[in-house]
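4.2 Preliminary Data

To establish feasibility before requesting continued support, the project team ran the inverse folding procedure on a target of 450 residues. The structure was first converted into the token representation described in Section 3, and no sequence information of any kind was made available to the design step. The complete token record follows.
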């Protein structure tokens, strides 16, 4: 993939159900303060991406985050880290497919939620068997569509504000930022409660480094892609959320539907809501598509490290790890059953679980970078160094501790928190039972691609 495809690949992973569906839950919990949570999460994401980028461009033994964790934190944590990322990616994919099912069912009530999710999974199964270059171009086009859709929404929102709203949006006003209880209408507790929502929203940005091994001239493509990613994500997350709050008082923002689709429905132009619903399906499939790519490459790295069956690392004639891809699809297909059994709760459950998983996985990235930097001699020349080391690493870890504390103490999050902690404990136990304790090889080029 080239730099253009890599940047849009990571952007496609991050611009998913978090901004199009989950934003309503975040606004309902924290009001306009969700904007500040997005800014904080965006800065944290940037530091994490810079840490990964530095290791990717300076570690002579490979470009796999599984390899980084193994060398700097040990083989057992590498096993836990890789498999936790894979499971977290699977939950994101299931959440995106569930959102597709919810959207299609709302749009076409005769279509069951589970069958729409199944249809989306079948489409993605075809895309993920293509060559990497074709895959990258497909993802580029899908991401471009969602960028255009969000841009249209922002331009339309500015027009409506200048026109003082419309018949369907009579309360549109800049004063909505402070008029209904202030910028922090639910207090400090409400603001803290939306930090996990923001963390979920930015999950997927690490995909920019997972694709480094399949990038043309990564030493040029990776810094350029990371630099552009932060600005675009903040523009679309903060800009879109701001526009939603300005057009609709935060108390009236829908929780179980896409606020963007609802606003398009109310502007009075025929067919705009349906068109945005169709685009939103593509948006969600694009995000799921990015994570399925990342899951397959991580599984291949785990196989190369001896942490998964060797067959999962084999490539087909298109240089695609087809067994790893098939395994991911098999696991993600559980979303079909969940949408059949508990259609009303599955999206929220998966979103909360993913937020917890993202925090733990990003934390291990940052800790591995700390060990990486301290392992280098003072005279070692590094390129593309992460800024403000080590203060930035420590501040990011403090942010993760705060989010984890919220998840552990909030009654709504506590059951999911317990499940995620149990999953990590099981993975660590499996690392002992599988005797994942061999020393890392001198050259870990086999990890490339994850």
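Position-by-position output of the design step:
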């Amino acid at each position: 993939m080239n730099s253009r495809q890599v940047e849009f690949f990571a952007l496609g992973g991050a611009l998913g159900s978090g901004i199009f569906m989950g934003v309503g839950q975040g606004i309902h919990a924290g009001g306009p303060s969700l904007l500040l949570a997005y800014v904080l999460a965006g800065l944290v994401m940037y530091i994490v991406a810079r840490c990964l980028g530095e290791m990717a461009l300076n570690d002579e033994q490979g470009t796999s985050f599984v390899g980084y964790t193994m060398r700097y934190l040990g083989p057992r944590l590498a096993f836990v880290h890789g498999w936790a990322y894979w499971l977290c990616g699977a939950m994101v994919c299931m959440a995106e497919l569930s959102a597709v099912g919810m959207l299609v069912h709302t749009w076409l009530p005769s279509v069951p939620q589970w069958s729409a999710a199944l249809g989306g999974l079948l489409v993605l199964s075809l895309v993920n068997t293509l060559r990497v270059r074709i895959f990258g171009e497909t993802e580029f086009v899908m991401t471009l569509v969602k960028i255009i859709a969000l841009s249209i929404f922002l331009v339309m929102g500015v027009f409506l504000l200048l026109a003082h709203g419309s018949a369907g949006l009579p309360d549109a006003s800049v004063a909505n930022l402070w008029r209904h209880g202030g910028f922090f209408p639910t207090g400090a507790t409400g603001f803290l409660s939306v930090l996990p929502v923001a963390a979920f929203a930015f999950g997927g940005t690490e995909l920019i480094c997972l694709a480094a091994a399949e990038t043309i001239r990564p030493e040029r493509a990776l810094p350029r892609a990371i630099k552009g990613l932060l600005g675009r994500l903040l523009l679309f997350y903060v800009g879109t959320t701001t526009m939603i709050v300005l057009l609709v008082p935060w108390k009236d923002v829908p929780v179980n539907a896409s606020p963007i689709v609802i606003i398009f429905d109310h502007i009075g132009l025929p067919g705009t809501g349906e068109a945005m619903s169709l685009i939103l399906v593509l948006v969600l499939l694009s995000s799921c598509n990015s994570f399925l790519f990342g899951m397959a490459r991580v599984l291949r790295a785990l196989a190369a490290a001896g942490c998964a069956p060797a067959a999962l690392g084999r490539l087909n004639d298109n240089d695609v790890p087809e067994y790893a891809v098939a395994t991911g699809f098999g696991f993600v297909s559980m979303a079909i059953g969940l949408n059949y059994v508990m259609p009303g709760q599955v999206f929220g459950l998966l979103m909360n679980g993913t937020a917890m998983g993202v925090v733990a996985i990003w934390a291990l990235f940052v800790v591995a970078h700390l060990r990486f930097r301290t392992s280098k001699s003072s005279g070692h020349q590094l390129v593309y160094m992460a800024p403000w080391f080590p203060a930035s690493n420590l501040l990011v870890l403090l942010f993760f501790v705060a989010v984890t504390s919220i998840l552990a103490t909030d009654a709504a999050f506590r059951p999911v928190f317990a499940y995620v902690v149990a999953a990590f404990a099981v993975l660590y136990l499996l690392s002992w039972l599988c005797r994942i304790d061999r020393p890392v090889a001198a050259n870990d080029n086999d990890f490339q691609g994850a």
